């Protein structure tokens, strides 16, 4: 017997289906998308900004943050344009507002800033929405 305060599945309180298109994206897809996006950011940082992933932190200086900045730029640019980052789209996810509408421009900026802090992204509610998504009013769905 489930309590009335707990949903039967992630996304139930948002009116989303349990599985299939339009359901909450599960952790495996999220982690895969994050790995794809960060790998792409590292490749771009290495190719265009002289980032050396094997340099010691004392030798790298501020360039050690270049992949993180490229990662943020990818998120902020692609979420409004494509409905998700390249990693999201490759693993079959899309990011929308909680009401299902287009994210707009400011939501991806807030979401990305909080995502870069890491902690908001690993603290979830019963719908498996990270604090970064709750603060931005977004939800990551299966496409």
TrEMBL record:
It comes from the Bacteria. Signal peptide: none annotated. It is found in: Cell membrane. Its main location: membrane. Residues 25-137 form the RDD domain. The keyword Transmembrane applies. The chain crosses the membrane at residues 31-51, 63-83. GO terms for cellular component: plasma membrane. It is a multi-pass membrane protein. It holds the Pfam family RDD. Keywords: Cell membrane, Membrane, Transmembrane, Transmembrane helix. This is RDD family protein. It comes from Microbacterium barkeri. The lineage of its organism: Bacteria, Bacillati, Actinomycetota, Actinomycetes, Micrococcales.
């Amino acid at each position: 017997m489930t309590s009335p305060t707990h949903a039967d599945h992630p996304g139930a309180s948002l009116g989303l289906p349990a599985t299939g298109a339009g359901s909450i994206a599960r952790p495996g897809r999220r982690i895969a998308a994050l790995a794809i996006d960060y790998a792409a950011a590292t490749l771009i940082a290495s190719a265009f900004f002289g980032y050396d992933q094997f340099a010691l932190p004392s030798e790298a200086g501020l360039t050690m943050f270049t992949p993180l900045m490229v990662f943020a730029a990818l998120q902020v640019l692609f979420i409004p344009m494509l409905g998700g980052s390249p990693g999201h789209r490759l693993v079959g996810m899309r990011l929308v507002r909680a009401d299902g509408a287009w994210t707009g421009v400011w939501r991806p900026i807030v979401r990305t800033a909080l995502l870069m802090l890491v902690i908001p992204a690993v603290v979830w509610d019963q719908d498996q929405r990270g604090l970064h998504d709750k603060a931005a009013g977004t939800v990551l769905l299966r496409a």
